[in-house]
Amino acid sequence: MTQNAAPVVGIIMGSTSDMPAMQPCMDQLEAWGIPYELKVASAHRKPDVVHEWASNAHERGIKVIIAAAGKAAHLGGVVAAFTPLPVIAVPMKTSDLGGLDSLLSMVQMPSGVPVATVAINGAKNAAILAVQIMGAGDADMLQKIIDMKREMAEA
Q: At 82, which CATH number?
């Protein structure tokens, strides 16, 4: 979605209503010049779309997927079932249980289908974690994290 380069981060959310809470994720990636693609598709309402998008994400050059969902919050787990890529889940704050329902759904994954999970509405941390994951094999990505941590320590 950003720049002219091919996206390396895939962001998927269950509903357009998640967009405001996910904006800090997109803002962080844009600040670092990291291209991403954005998809809105519910694991429950559009499972075939989610399956197609997730299963070929690595073929499109995506390195890490960030999945945001609320309530039952199955999106991250469903995506993880269909991709070999690391998946980071962002539980959305909900009106019913404040997002605790989403958080618990995301962290209770079966063996063999891991999903990393950040805090409720932790969209910015999801972006940072995605860059840390990519930084394990990419010196430019790693430097972004090193610089950020240095800036935090100096503030």
A: 3.40.50.1970
